[in-house]
TrEMBL record:
Protein name: RNA exonuclease 4
Localization, UniProt: Nucleus
Organism, scientific name: Nannochloropsis gaditana (strain CCMP526) (Green microalga)
Biological role stated in the UniProt entry: Exoribonuclease involved in ribosome biosynthesis. Involved in the processing of ITS1, the internal transcribed spacer localized between the 18S and 5.8S rRNAs.
SMART domains documented for this protein: EXOIII
Lineage, uppermost ranks: Eukaryota, Sar, Stramenopiles, Ochrophyta, Eustigmatophyceae
């Protein structure tokens, strides 16, 4: 499995970045029936390095919203402040209990979350990264008030000292990869 496409949407679900990425290794099976990617998409694709630089520039200083973001950030070799990440796979209200009641919480598939919480069917046949990004953003927006309230109670959003004054991290936007 290799990175072939990166899509970012804004808070309103509008696509602000959508690029195919030229893989470093030769692809023997595009799995088009799942990925939607064909050889022709990669002929004029960006190099991974170009994509990483562009995405890093777009998300710098912004909250990132997505599903299983650890994977996306790892593939893109990006680091982002934990306090600026909203991962629908890790949000307690969207997780399911494993085994008996009170058991360990496990992430649910984005496809299932979209259907159960939004009434949206995604990933039927070919995956579309724009649909996935929009679904993650809509899930965030549906729980935004409660999610942010919970975060304010955690150590991730405690005040930090800057110039002797208590100050919060400023956020100027939200993006979903």
């Amino acid at each position: 499995s290799a990175l072939a496409r990166v899509t970012l949407v804004d808070f309103d679900g509008r696509v602000i970045y959508d690029e195919h990425v030229r893989p470093r290794e030769r692809i023997t099976d595009f799995r088009t029936w799942v990925s939607g990617v064909k050889a022709k998409h990669l002929k004029a694709a960006l190099s991974l390095k170009e994509c990483i630089l562009q995405v890093a520039d777009l998300v710098k200083g912004k909250i990132i919203v997505g599903h299983a973001l650890k994977n996306d950030l790892q593939v893109l070799m990006l680091q982002h402040p934990v306090a600026m990440i909203r991962d629908t796979a890790r949000y307690r209200a969207y997780m399911r209990s494993h085994g008996k009641e009170g058991g360990k919480l496990r992430p649910r598939r984005l496809k299932d979350l979209a259907l159960d919480f939004l009434g949206m069917e995604i990933q039927e046949g070919k995956h579309d990264s724009a649909d996935d990004a929009r679904a993650a953003m809509l899930l965030y927006r549906a729980q935004r008030t409660e999610w942010e309230k919970e975060l304010r109670k955690t150590h991730l959003h405690r005040y930090t000292k800057a110039n002797g004054k208590k100050k919060r991290n400023l956020r100027d936007g939200v993006q979903a990869p």
